[in-house]
Amino acid sequence: MKLWITRPMTAAVEARARAEFDVHIRPDTGVLSRAEMERALRDYDVVMPTLGDLFSAEVIASVPDTRCRLLANFGVGYNHIDVSAARAAGIAVTNTPGAVTDATADIAMTLILMSARRAGEGERLVRSGSWRGWHPTQMLGLHVTGKTVGIIGLGRIGAAIGRRCHFGFGMKVLYTARSDKDPGYPVSRCDSVEEMAAQVDFLVVAVPGGAETRHLVDEGVLAAMQPHAHLINIARGEIVKESALIAALQDNQIAGAGLDVYEFEPKVPEALRGLDSVTLLPHLGTATEEVRTNMGHMALDNVAALAAGKPLPNPV
Ligand code: NAP
Fold this sequence. Notes:
The chain is an alpha/beta fold. The protein folds into two domains: 2-99 and 288-308, Rossmann fold (3-Layer(aba) Sandwich), CATH 3.40.50; 101-280, Rossmann fold. The protein is 36% helix and 14% strand. It is built from twelve helices and twelve strands. Helix 7 links the parallel strand 6 (148-152) and strand 7 (172-176). The two termini are 21 Å apart.
């Protein structure tokens, strides 16, 4: 069982991989090149890819003599892998659901609070040395407690965000999804994203990326939002039409945005970087030692199951 781990992992994950498998760990932190993806499919039984490694139908078809039997994705989002093309080539795909839920919901709350309370702008003010002291109308933001949040996609992460908003901040929780949800606290389902956008103070994106959700948040949705409202995206960049978001922020159509992900990641347009009303994080959703270790163990559990001829715990 030859395994290729495509990025450095936490010490615990690397130690387990070395103990259990014939593993090669790529020292580079960047995304895989086309040549590397082709080599991965040709030379390894299992590959552990991650965000940004575009295993498209074209890449998969370009290696007809594939040795690879499993793409054990490191991460819950797998929109960078063409799952049906992989399946057709006899390659299973697994992901790491659950391990990422609370950490990503915490980053959504960080962005809600930072955007509403202008925390990034305030931090820049203090750091620049130009803060002249407290006064009653200094940097007034939006009060968060008791407001209304609209969550696009009340799945694992969406429901965890709603739980924090309801129990932690006494917020009313609206959502859109393909099916009715009962997360264990009060929620109301909206028929469309636009209808929900018009009613909320915070619109939070928590659906998976991919063709079906590309530009789900576009000019229409942004125009429906109230001028004091904030857009938060912790899911995938391409779900929000970035050019429309920049225009909405520049025209003060909405009050602010908190982003962990970007349409052309890691490229972040200068127009966004120049706006004080947007909080920009470098895709920190799952970035804690414990969570990245749990994700790595989950990916390795799938590798171990394949090696033992057992059913894969997390097939997609
Ligand atoms: P999940 O449990 O599968 O939940 C996805 C939710 O989106 C469900 O409510 C689902 O509705 C809804 N949905 C799926 N496809 C849809 C579509 N085409 N149109 C409308 N709604 C749709 O996924 P999760 O674990 O919460 O993760 C969500 C996403 O967060 C991941 O796919 C990943 O891209 C992203 N993520 C980001 C970070 C980060 O670092 N920022 C970390 C982890 C995850 P139904 O249940 O009704 O189908």
